Backbone:
């Protein structure tokens, strides 16, 4: 069981479907800078390519993001459905390993970014999340893993209680 | 690839490249807002979308767009011309009871404006004219308010004014010891309008001629002012 495998999830609700179609068509007209999304027939899972911004530590490096949408996107709050028995946390955007070396990105691809969890708002979009992730990459002072990377990744593999692997959002509040 | 293309075209037919008008789209479902409701911070949502987010998913009572505090009693519904009764969106959140949309808070009915003269160009002109002529504008104004015909009505009232005014002016001339009373009478005569009794009648044989002269003068003044 790896983080990038899709556990059985309910299909998108009608509202989620409509909204994702709108987001997709807006993305096609006006994609966020630095991102490429190859449209597939799977609306519920997007694979997005991100290229590090010029002049940053990740310039010219390319990574893959996997975005999985829950049944009730955009309502579903962080603690809702997807992977709940696995992490106890709702995750819908991860890096497909190898993930960039970054103080807020775990080696299994999980991203420690508050808007993906407690600070999610249904007014946000895939596009705005992508922009936040790129800006997080761009502002990184050094290429390294989070201090708790090994413990966190091990807990994920063991399917430990989410309380023990509770996300903490490092220093992003400043 | 073929598949991808077909899906991408079917997706884009809703808005496509010609920029659609997003102004009235709900900030949660991105559809045209149904049972639209606006927060104090001005953000528009479907009522079911906002209710569902605030009461079933969010940990805080904040606007999804700007994080401003959202209070149920400060929400403002938007009432357009559409049907207000049916609520199809509620059914799209199955298994969830969504209460009625908050009603608008209606301030008391505005008090009717004070009685006003007709605001058309003719009466404006007339007020101006009378004001120039005799300083009787307030009286003339109330009179004009009762006249529903335009310029045509101006001449008779002008006529009445002169008709009633003149004998008093004569009185003023012939009885210097009683100037104010005479003037006052004439003044009172103006709003009396077509009331014949206030007219002093045909006691003086020269009245008719004087009347005619004054009518002509009045008409001349009127047309002068018109020009
Ligand atoms: Zn909505
Ligand atoms: Zn707001």
Residues:
């Amino acid at each position: 069981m790896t983080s990038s495998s899709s556990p059985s999830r309910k299909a998108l609700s009608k509202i989620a479907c409509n909204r994702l179609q709108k987001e997709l068509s807006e993305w096609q007209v006006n994609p966020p800078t630095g991102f490429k999304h190859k449209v597939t027939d799977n609306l519920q899972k997007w694979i997005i390519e991100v290229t590090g911004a010029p002049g940053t530590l990740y310039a010219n490096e390319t990574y893959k993001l996997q975005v999985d949408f829950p049944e009730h996107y955009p309502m579903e709050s962080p603690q809702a459905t997807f992977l709940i028995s696995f992490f106890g946390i709702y995750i819908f955007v991860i890096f497909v390993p190898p993930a960039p070396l970054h103080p807020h990105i775990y080696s299994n691809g999980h991203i420690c970014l508050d808007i993906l969890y407690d600070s999610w708002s249904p007014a946000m979009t895939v596009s705005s999340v992508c922009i936040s992730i790129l800006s997080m990459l761009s502002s990184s002072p050094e290429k390294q893993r989070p201090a708790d990377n090994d413990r966190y990744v091990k807990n994920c593999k063991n399917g430990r209680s989410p309380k023990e692997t509770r996300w903490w959002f490092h220093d992003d509040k400043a | 690839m073929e598949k991808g293309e077909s899906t991408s075209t079917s997706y884009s037919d809703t808005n496509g490249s010609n920029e659609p008008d997003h102004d009235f789209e709900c900030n949660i479902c991105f559809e045209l807002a149904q049972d639209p409701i606006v927060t104090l911070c001005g953000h528009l949502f479907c009522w079911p979308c906002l209710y569902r987010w605030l009461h079933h998913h969010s940990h805080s009572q904040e606007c999804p767009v700007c994080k401003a505090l959202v209070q149920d009693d400060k929400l403002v519904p938007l009432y357009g011309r559409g049907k207000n009764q049916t609520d199809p969106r509620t059914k799209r959140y199955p298994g969830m009871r969504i209460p009625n949309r908050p009603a608008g808070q209606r301030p008391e009915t505005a008090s009717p404006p004070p009685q006003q003269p007709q605001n058309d160009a003719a009466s404006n002109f007339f007020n101006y004219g009378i004001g120039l002529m005799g300083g009787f504008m307030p009286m003339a104004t109330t009179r004009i308010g009762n006249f529903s015909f335009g310029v045509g009505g101006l001449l008779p009232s002008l006529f009445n004014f002169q008709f009633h005014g003149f004998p008093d002016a004569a009185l003023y001339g012939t009885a210097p010891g009683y100037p104010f009373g005479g003037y006052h009478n004439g003044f009172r005569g103006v709003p009396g309008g077509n009331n014949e009794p206030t007219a002093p009648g045909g006691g003086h044989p020269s009245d008719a001629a004087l009347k005619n002269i004054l009518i002509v003068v009045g008409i001349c003044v009127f047309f002068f002012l018109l020009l």
